Amino acid sequence: MFDMMKMMGKIKEVQSKMKEAQEELAQIEVEGESGAGLVKALVNGQKKLLKVEVDESLVNTADKDVLQDLIVAAVNKASAEADTLAKEYMKKHTDGLMPNIPGFDLGNMFNG
Questions:
Q1: Which end of the chain is more exposed for a tag (fewer CB within 10 A), N or C?
Q2: What pLDDT is stored for residue 112 in this prediction?
Q3: Coiled coil located at which positions (predicted)?
Q4: What 8-state DSSP symbol labels residue 26?
């Protein structure tokens, strides 16, 4: 027979583990670069931009559009890597907490 109280306890445990894992994701840092390292972006596991570094050779150029495009590319690379790491991290830290229900992905529960 289905034990509703046991299931509710499991849900609370999952919520607690998910909150803890999300807080830990803020500590993960991933760097993305573009233009052969001329622009670097650092994001955390929550996809928050922490730092942008621009090589001095670009600062003196009049080509503002190139600089902006390189910054966007570096941030997008770092963000994509952080997303991959966050999904792996969440999967690892929530594995076995809930039954394997097709279509129910805990790794995506708090992304967005």
A1: N
A2: 47
A3: 4-31
A4: T
